[in-house]
Design a protein that fits this description.
Layout: H1 6-14, E1 28-32, H2 37-48, H3 50-56, H4 62-74, E2 78-85, E3 88-97, E4 114-120, H5 130-145, E5 151-154, H6 161-169, E6 173-180, E7 183-191
Parallel strand pairs: 4-5
Antiparallel strand pairs: 1-2, 2-3, 3-4, 5-7, 6-7
Helix pairs in contact: 2-4
């Protein structure tokens, strides 16, 4: 067997695996969202909610969400995740490789950079500090799961001031306004 050269070792390091599913400390828990049953209907219902649909623009039908979740799980770019607080699902998240996402055209993405899309599904659970409480734990768990990751990005719609305030309180810093498909976004970064 041929020994691995320094250059080959560097190339292997740059090849990022699928995004990790974070191992969160209590009272938080995260797991992959399944494309059927309870998970499918919960993700569909949450994305139909006006406070989510206004910014995510994914108020799709159940069959569309079923296809979307199945496609995400079959690929290596995005992991759909349900995050629970005290055993109750409260947040739908997508953990993605930023270098394989449209956001990579707006900043110098590194192969191991991770991105997050977050949505608090129930309106009654918003404005309770869940996101600002979750984010430091979530970023720590993602950095631990991928030791090569040095940055995690968010790209909320610039009009979503509630989310932006929560993200800032959770440790993210605004970097730049960027144009993404369907929205003017604020690129926000959390560094290791």
């Amino acid at each position: 067997m041929k020994p691995v050269s320094h250059l080959d070792s560097y190339r292997l390091q740059l090849m990022a695996d699928a995004p990790p599913v974070p191992d969160l400390p209590m009272p938080w828990d995260a797991r992959v969202a399944r494309p059927d049953g309870y998970d499918l209907h919960l993700v569909h219902r949450w994305n139909q909610a006006p406070h989510v649909a206004a910014f995510r623009r994914q108020a799709w039908t159940v069959p569309q969400w079923e296809r979307r979740l199945a496609e995400l799980l079959a690929g290596d770019d995005v992991r759909p995740v349900l995050i629970s607080w005290h055993g109750r699902p409260v947040i739908y998240a997508e953990v993605y490789r930023a270098a394989r996402h449209a956001v990579a055209g707006c900043y110098r993405a590194r192969p191991h950079d991770l991105g997050l899309n977050l949505a608090v599904g129930e309106l009654a659970m918003t404005d309770r500090g869940l996101v600002r409480s979750l984010l430091p734990r979530l970023t720590d768990a993602l950095f631990e799961a991928d030791p090569h990751c040095t940055r995690i990005v968010l790209e909320p719609d610039v009009r979503n001031t509630r989310a932006i305030r929560s993200f800032e309180a959770g440790g993210f810093v605004a970097a730049d306004e960027i144009m993404l498909p369907g929205k003017l976004a604020l690129l926000m970064v959390c560094k290791r």
